[in-house]
Amino acid sequence: YVQWVSDRVWIYEKEVIVDPSLFRNMLVRELVLEGVEGYAKVFWNDELIGRCDNAFKPFYFDLRDKVKASNKLRIVFEHTGNVEREKERRAYPLPGGSRVYTRKPAYHYGWDWGPKLNGVGIGSANLQAWTGVRIEHSMPVVDTITPEALEGTAVLQVRSSVSGLLHLNVFLDGKKVVTGYAVRVRPGRQE
């Protein structure tokens, strides 16, 4: 009988040793958590820096001016059942019960091949530091297709720590197909 696991508050703690020189010239310093299964409060050096509530998306936490040589990361997982019941009480009942309010793998709630083991966990935790522009997501969209050609659009979601004009080159099968496409960027996320 291990059902009690989901009836508890769980606390994950880790000392994080950082060489501050790694972050010296970087404009963006962040903690990235992925695969956080449950409702969690995230603390960095005993300061609440944010919350996680979806196992299927990454969470980015700004650590600018918060990184020291020795740091403490603490992630406090709330009692999932209590949060689910509270969400159901505030909204309205949905098919599937209160579990449908939680974004985590469905097999945690039992399956025909396994028991209900609604645990909590963290897929990965990383410190990242960077300056410039990063492509976070890309999505090709086919506009038209014929036997001779395919025309489409690439939708990019970027994050930038700078303002300016970004020149893109697009390659297909190692061959440059678009040269010098210019896009204006500003700090933050944009499409």
Report on the structure:
It is a single chain. The chain has one helix spanning 80-90; strands at 10-17, 28-34, 40-44, 47-52, 59-62, 70-77, 124-130, 133-145, 150-160, 164-172, 175-185, 188-190. By secondary structure, it is mainly beta. A 4-stranded antiparallel β-sheet has the order 1-6-3-4, with no helix packed on it. Strands 5-2-7 form a 3-stranded antiparallel β-sheet, with no helix packed on it. The protein is flat and about 60 Å long. The protein starts with 9 loop residues before the first strand and ends with a strand. The mean pLDDT is 86.
Q: Can you count the beta strands?
A: 12
Q: Give the topology string: H per helix, E per strand.
A: EEEEEEHEEEEEE
Low-confidence stretches: none
| Number of helical elements | 1
Strand proportion, as a percent range, falls in: over 45%
Describe the largest sheet: 4 strands, antiparallel
The span between the termini is 49 Å
Rough outline: flat
Helix content: under 10%
Strand line-up across the major sheet: 1-6-3-4
Average predicted local confidence, pLDDT: 86
Structural class: mainly beta
Q: Write down the Rg.
A: 22 Å
Furnish the topology, listing elements before pairings:
Blueprint: E1 10-17, E2 28-34, E3 40-44, E4 47-52, E5 59-62, E6 70-77, H1 80-90, E7 124-130, E8 133-145, E9 150-160, E10 164-172, E11 175-185, E12 188-190
Antiparallel strand pairs: 1-6, 2-5, 2-7, 3-4, 3-6, 8-9, 9-12, 10-11
